[in-house]
Amino acid sequence: MSTDTGSPPGSEAGPQAADKLDSGVLKIAGVVVLGAIMSILDVTVVSVALPTLMKEFDATYATVAWTMTAYTLALAAVIPITGWAADRFGTRRLYLASIVLFVGGSALCTLAWDIGPLIAFRALQGLGGGMLMPLGMTIMTRAAGPERVGRVMAVLGVPMLLGPIGGPILGGWLIEAASWQWIFLINVPIGAVALVSAWIVLPKDDPQPSASFDFVGMLLLSPGLALFLYGVSSIPEEGTVTATKVLVPGLIGLVLVVAFVAHALRKADALIDLSLFKNRNVTIAVVTMTLFSVAFMGAMLLFPSYFLQVRAEGTLKTGLLLAPQGLGAMLTMPIGGRLTDKMGPGKLVLGGIVVIGAAMAVFTQVGAETSYAVLLGSLFVMGMGMGVTMMPIMSAALSTLTDHQIARGSTMMNIVQQTAGSIGTAVMSVIFTNHVLDSQAAGAYSAVMQGKVPVDQVPPELLLQGRTDLAEAFGSTFLIALVLIAACLVPALFLPRNKPAATAGETKAAAVPMH
Length: 515
Description:
- With 515 residues, the protein is mainly α.
- The chain contains 24 helices and no strands.
- The chain has helices at 15-19, 23-45, 50-57, 61-64, 66-89, 91-110, 115-144, 149-177, 182-185, 187-201, 215-233, 235-238, 244-266, 280-310, 315-321, 323-343, 346-363, 372-387, 390-398, 403-437, 440-449, 460-487, 489-492, 504-511.
- Helix 17 (346-363) packs antiparallel against helix 18.
- The longest helix is centred in the last third of the chain and has 35 residues, at 403-437.
- Residues 1-18 and 502-515 have low confidence and may be disordered.
């Protein structure tokens, strides 16, 4: 059994420790959240800089978009090896190395002299960033123990929800106040604090000899995921699944992933432990997370686009308009985490999905002049639903795993979330684009808003009609997201509805250092 799970300084023993997050665990949580915020913010903070980068490097949108795609693909490619590496080298050492790699990539991005080097440095960032979240989940779950995994997931859920909201706000402000380099340079001081804090706070590693590295599995799964996600991420640009740029890498990636599954089923120590699916809670949680990530992550893309395109708001104001969603989540997450530990995730997740669906229903009726009070109120309610949905699903998967399985389990859940989220983003983009193409007026208005066509070349009445049609396109796409969210209720019905069981030995293994 892996034993790099020392007790955090100041951790308490006995029933009291099982009832609350003590000071030692909270210190570890602070370190982990700091690293997670860096990684997740960087996925979205660059999105607002794309027009600036196009001008700076005299590049097309398709080329500049690779600064985001390269990061995401590197993120997905490195996640599979994280579980093995954590067992082999220890979570603390690997976490420190990940921060160094991420911060180093950030510093290099500020020195980029052309778009090509910037894309390469973003990939380097992704290699470090990809390990931070699954490692953070492993460290936190081991430190807190199975009895407190719900509250741990609530803590980790904050950066996961605030990233898509805070990224555009931070990116827009840094570009307006300073320059595009600062969206990367800001990671250097934050990373330095995270590195020193992790060195001081995280328990020392005591890794034991682990299974040999599954090189065949790595050669199948990592490039398989990267190629599949590349194909999926190309769908919005190509506008069809049958395009060569989509179909070829997508199918090759899918074949490699299927080959990995066949390989892993025959190998005792595969890169991803598929025997985890023998655990009923893990299987149900994976299915629920897949459906939920496709639906909600896809919809998350549409919220800022509506404010930017239909309401003609600036980037910074758009980010601020999305803030109620994060505030709602921050309000309910601590409550959701505590209730998950006391009563299990099943009832909470069902309630959360219903709340999210009710708020999403408002957006299916969105128009060009819908009241901001209604929209912001709906976003706040949606955030409240998120606070008792995503991380309790994670808790359902991890709460019944043994100490040795936690690293592999958290790695698998991160792969599922990353892949499903990418699919959801692509699906919603294509559905929305097709709705826009159905209306000549909406297409003309969209082209004007994106700066492709001068406003004086489009008749005013066509612009007015186009704005209305574009709002309707958003509403129709939100309807698809609502249907997918409703579908999440089916697997969620089978999530555990009682307090996670943990033996005294398991609790002790997670809370007491073993040397």
